[in-house]
Specification:
Layout: E1 9-12, H1 16-27, E2 36-40, E3 52-53, E4 61-62, E5 69-70, H2 75-81, H3 94-104, E6 113-114, H4 130-141, H5 144-147, H6 158-161, H7 164-173, H8 181-190, E7 204-205, H9 211-225, E8 229-232, E9 234-242, E10 248-256, E11 262-265, E12 271-275, E13 284-286, H10 302-310, H11 320-323, H12 326-329, E14 331-338, H13 342-351, E15 360-363, E16 370-373, E17 388-394, H14 413-424, H15 430-435, E18 437-444, E19 470-473, H16 487-501, H17 518-529
Length: about 525
């Protein structure tokens, strides 16, 4: 029986999944905003989609990661953003603003791969041989139940991992060779249209500012205008279920800073939508003089909540499959905040790309596998004139650098900047860059957790069988055929949950399959298999 429009709804977590669910409740299920409660542990909404002043003594700006959008696959996200007005003009939707911005600032990388001698590689030469193509075909042909918990490197030979294609694919999406082969297969199918443009990333769509300013803030402000209540500083420590099969949420257990523990009783018509797991749980920050701590003991509670829920029923997932090996799920990013244009101007001269056009640059032979991107400026809404930013990350933080003889995980921000400058080879401006640049480093123990090897049942369904008044949200639910580590995944899960429980008589946009489009499939496969 569909929920009542007078139901009270509790959304655990303030990330994009909960924000999207709240929007669909108001827009499509016609639930009054004042009946919707978002419970967020942090003092800000957005979850992993951030962009803010750095929380370090040095200052500057920081984004933990960048969010690249994509035209064909992100259908549920576009559906949401079509109805959200921008902060600057209520007559223009966030979707319209993004379309216009990408016409003004199209992505066309001219330096996607940098060789060890600092020459720019011809990245259009993917470097795949007949065996690589045969292995790709085999992976695509096998059903997921046969692939099971096998690793990516169980399916490919060393030649594949030395190819330009793998270098670009892995750094665009942050894959490691030990990650789930199922997830790689899903990415091949979801983004097959990117095969013949992976060297330029021309299929990437970006927002005018960072993901928080351009997406989260407009959604949050729209929800607030509808009466949705967001409570910050609230940690949900437990969820109680009723009945022998735990098919109904009866109580949420909460903690607020400086206040005694409390609970929220759910009535007969009330609902709970629970975000489980977190890719940015236990994030720590450093600056030019400090090193961010690698937290290994689960301090912020994001994983403990799912671990406690998982004990309630066998179909509530197995979180240890994703949070049990930090050395396989971590990587570190950094944001440069510069008060001079020297570095950006020299990168533009070197690559031929203006800021915002080039997308990722990867030093293929670097020990850290270092990548950077220069976004269109300004990248933050309040970014002062004559201030500029650059973002970068590395997949291998456990090995010494090429120019700094230390592991990235042990480096200060100043040392990471030195490693970058060493790869660029801009010795004549190095001192100027150091003197005018603030560095914010970010260590994220679980940033790749969603790619970990898994089997059926490790991720719960969005709506478990028989669930009466709850659903699971986020990157660690199971949505058949869709791909994690995308905003689309969180939004699709939210739409699935709300439409199911509230009987919304609208069709959820189908998952895009490029292979079903003969023109797209032929073009992409001709590139990969030529």
């Amino acid at each position: 029986m569909p929920a009542s429009k007078n139901s009270k709804v509790y959304l655990v977590g303030g990330g994009i999944a909960s924000l999207a669910a709240a929007a669909f409740l108001v827009r499509d299920a016609e639930v009054p905003g004042q009946n919707i409660h978002i419970l967020e542990q942090l003092p800000i909404a957005g979850g992993s989609m951030d962009g803010a002043p750095a929380p370090t003594a040095e200052g500057g700006y920081v984004t933990r990661g960048g969010r690249m959008f994509e035209e064909e696959h992100y259908v549920c996200l576009w559906n949401l953003l079509e109805s959200i007005p921008t902060l600057d003009d209520a007559a223009v939707s966030v979707r319209q603003e993004m379309l216009a911005f990408n016409i003004e600032h199209p992505t066309l990388a001219k330096a996607r791969i940098i060789n060890g001698d600092r020459t720019i590689a011809d990245a259009s030469r993917l470097g795949l041989d007949a065996r690589d193509r045969a292995d790709m075909t085999r992976l695509l042909a096998l059903p997921e139940r046969v692939i099971g918990a096998r690793r990516i490197d169980d399916f490919f030979q060393p030649h594949f991992f030395a190819s330009n294609f793998w270098c670009m694919w892995r750094t665009t999406f942050a894959f490691q060779t030990w990650h789930s082969a199922i997830e790689l297969k899903r990415y091949f199918l979801a983004f097959v249209q990117e095969f013949d443009r992976i060297h330029t990333l021309s299929g990437v769509r970006r927002s005018r500012y960072n993901q928080y300013d351009s997406v989260i803030r407009p959604v949050q402000e729209w929800l607030t205008a509808q009466g949705v209540r967001t409570e910050f500083g609230v940690t949900v420590t437990g969820v109680e279920f009723s009945g022998p099969d735990a098919r109904r949420v009866s109580r949420l257990q909460l903690e607020r800073a400086g206040a005694p523990a409390e609970s929220v009783e759910l009535g007969d018509d009330d609902y709970a939508f629970l975000t489980i797991g977190s890719m940015t749980s236990d994030t720590t920050y450093g600056d030019r003089a400090t090193v961010p701590e690698l937290v290994r003991d689960k301090r912020d509670g994001s994983w403990q909540l799912w671990e406690s829920i998982a004990k309630k029923a066998p179909d509530f997932g197995r979180p240890t499959a994703f949070c049990g090996n930090i050395d396989e799920t971590k990587w570190e990013s950094f944001t440069l905040t510069m008060t001079g244009r020297a570095l950006l101007d020299r990168i533009q001269e070197y690559t031929g790309n203006v800021p915002g056009e080039g997308a990722l640059m990867t030093w293929k032979d670097s020990r850290w596998l270092l990548s950077v991107v220069v976004p269109a400026q300004p990248h933050f809404r309040d970014q002062p004139e004559n201030t500029y930013t650059l973002w970068g990350y590395s997949l291998f933080g456990d090995v010494p650098g090429d120019h700094v003889p230390k592991k990235m995980d042990d480096c200060t921000g100043a040392e990471i900047l030195d490693e970058l400058l060493g790869h660029l080879g801009f010795d004549d401006i190095a001192d100027e860059v150091r003197a005018t640049t603030e560095v914010t480093t970010v260590q994220m123990p679980y940033i790749d957790a969603q790619f970990q090897r898994r089997v059926v049942g490790d991720r719960p369904l969005v709506v478990p069988a028989g669930a009466q008044n709850f659903a699971f949200l986020g990157q660690f639910v199971e949505i058949p055929e869709d791909v994690v580590f995308t905003v689309e995944y969180s939004v699709r899960g939210a739409m699935t949950a709300i439409y199911h429980h509230f009987g919304v008589d609208k069709e959820i946009p189908a998952i895009y399959h490029g292979l079903a489009d003969p023109k797209v499939a032929w073009s992409a496969l001709r590139t990969a298999f030529a």
